[in-house]
Amino acid sequence: SDPGLVARARAAKERLGDRVFVLGHHYQRDEVIQFADVTGDSFKLARDAAARPGAEYIVFCGVHFMAESADILTSDAQKVVLPDLAAGCSMADMASAEQVEECWDVLTDAGVADGVVPVSYMNSSADIKAFTGRHGGTICTSSNAERALDWAFGQGDKVLFLPDQHLGRNTAIRDLGMSPEDCVVYDPHRPNGGLTTQQLRDARMILWRGHCSVHGRFSLESVNEVRARIPGVRVLVHPECKHEVVAAADEVGSTEYIIKALEAAPAGSKWAVGTELNLVRRLADRFAPEGKEIVFLDRTVCFCSTMNRIDLPHLVWTLESLADGNELNQIRVDADTAHHAQVALERMLALP
Ligand code: CIZ
Ligand code: SF4
């Protein structure tokens, strides 16, 4: 990265000292990650932010829903800053508050809402988390989705899983032993979600029609192709991938799981990894000296474009502005939404 910008970022961060704490999501660019005080997945980062009450500014190098979660979990005195306000998440944007309220009306009209427990992936807006909290549901991450679903099926007889259909389906089938027929997909763009009352009554998992625009592009062909190209390769993918990809993989897990699996892998092992490219490249570079060969599962899949919006120029601009006393790009969740979202987040923290 540009040495002039690196020097400016370093100088601005030094001027701010302990007043700023920089969080870097695993999917961020290297040029940004080098300035992160901690790295992690969205949930770990939100908790790390809450564990630093002394920092006046939490600069969140990640996407919008992550900054919202950090604002919910940190004290009112702390200001969460997103270096580029256009860094959203296409998956989180696939479920709006109005659409989800409309879905609940459909479930109510079908006579099933009483037995439905919402389970929402961390990758959702604060509004969706608040809806989840209001209706007795919980949040989950890709590390605890199985425990969240087990808990939810102890509370009701159906789950409304938001907004990632793939994580919901993969967890239901792989971890809970359900059959694909137990799952239906609710499409917010079709009347009644595109489902009949009978389908809603028979379903156990009602999956929201959302997906990650990066992970959703890995294909079964890419798994077959890499196995043919690299004999002995182990395929390791994130559960936001389609079910057919997950079913064909050797191992499936969250970003933290992927990192630990590669740390524990023996020298000479070969891996094809299906998650965001910035992370895969960083892991390939990190483990190459140990003799571990790590390749990206599908060369036609690109970076997460919104994660990549946070680049070194945006970070420099943010840190220099804060150091100069100009506050900017603060992410603030209103008190009522934050309260109900926190209820749902606390249910996750209390999962057995
Ligand atoms: O796909 C993502 O954006 C992930 C894995 C986010 C997260 O929870 O850290
Ligand atoms: Fe959203 Fe997918 Fe990007 Fe994660 S990788 S921020 S889920 S679009």
UniProtKB/TrEMBL annotation:
<dbReference type="Pfam" id="PF02445">
    <property type="entry name" value="NadA"/>
</dbReference>
<dbReference type="GO" id="GO:0005829">
    <property type="term" value="C:cytosol"/>
</dbReference>
<feature type="binding site">
    <location>
        <position position="142"/>
    </location>
    <ligand>
        <name>iminosuccinate</name>
    </ligand>
</feature>
<comment type="pathway">
    <text>Cofactor biosynthesis; NAD(+) biosynthesis; quinolinate from iminoaspartate: step 1/1.</text>
</comment>
<feature type="binding site">
    <location>
        <begin position="121"/>
        <end position="123"/>
    </location>
    <ligand>
        <name>iminosuccinate</name>
    </ligand>
</feature>
<dbReference type="InterPro" id="IPR036094">
    <property type="entry name" value="NadA_sf"/>
</dbReference>
<feature type="binding site">
    <location>
        <begin position="238"/>
        <end position="240"/>
    </location>
    <ligand>
        <name>iminosuccinate</name>
    </ligand>
</feature>
<keyword id="KW-0963">Cytoplasm</keyword>
<feature type="binding site">
    <location>
        <position position="212"/>
    </location>
    <ligand>
        <name>[4Fe-4S] cluster</name>
    </ligand>
</feature>
<dbReference type="InterPro" id="IPR023515">
    <property type="entry name" value="Quinolinate_synth_A_type3"/>
</dbReference>
<dbReference type="GO" id="GO:0046872">
    <property type="term" value="F:metal ion binding"/>
</dbReference>
<comment type="similarity">
    <text>Belongs to the quinolinate synthase family. Type 3 subfamily.</text>
</comment>
<keyword id="KW-0808">Transferase</keyword>
<dbReference type="GO" id="GO:0008987">
    <property type="term" value="F:quinolinate synthetase A activity"/>
</dbReference>
<keyword id="KW-0479">Metal-binding</keyword>
<feature type="binding site">
    <location>
        <position position="42"/>
    </location>
    <ligand>
        <name>iminosuccinate</name>
    </ligand>
</feature>
<feature type="binding site">
    <location>
        <position position="255"/>
    </location>
    <ligand>
        <name>iminosuccinate</name>
    </ligand>
</feature>
<keyword id="KW-0411">Iron-sulfur</keyword>
<dbReference type="GO" id="GO:0051539">
    <property type="term" value="F:4 iron, 4 sulfur cluster binding"/>
</dbReference>
<keyword id="KW-0408">Iron</keyword>
<feature type="binding site">
    <location>
        <position position="304"/>
    </location>
    <ligand>
        <name>[4Fe-4S] cluster</name>
    </ligand>
</feature>
<keyword id="KW-0004">4Fe-4S</keyword>
<comment type="function">
    <text>Catalyzes the condensation of iminoaspartate with dihydroxyacetone phosphate to form quinolinate.</text>
</comment>
<dbReference type="InterPro" id="IPR003473">
    <property type="entry name" value="NadA"/>
</dbReference>
<feature type="binding site">
    <location>
        <position position="89"/>
    </location>
    <ligand>
        <name>[4Fe-4S] cluster</name>
    </ligand>
</feature>
<keyword id="KW-0662">Pyridine nucleotide biosynthesis</keyword>
<protein>
    <recommendedName>
        <fullName>Quinolinate synthase</fullName>
        <ecNumber>2.5.1.72</ecNumber>
    </recommendedName>
</protein>
<feature type="binding site">
    <location>
        <position position="25"/>
    </location>
    <ligand>
        <name>iminosuccinate</name>
    </ligand>
</feature>
<dbReference type="GO" id="GO:0034628">
    <property type="term" value="P:'de novo' NAD+ biosynthetic process from L-aspartate"/>
</dbReference>
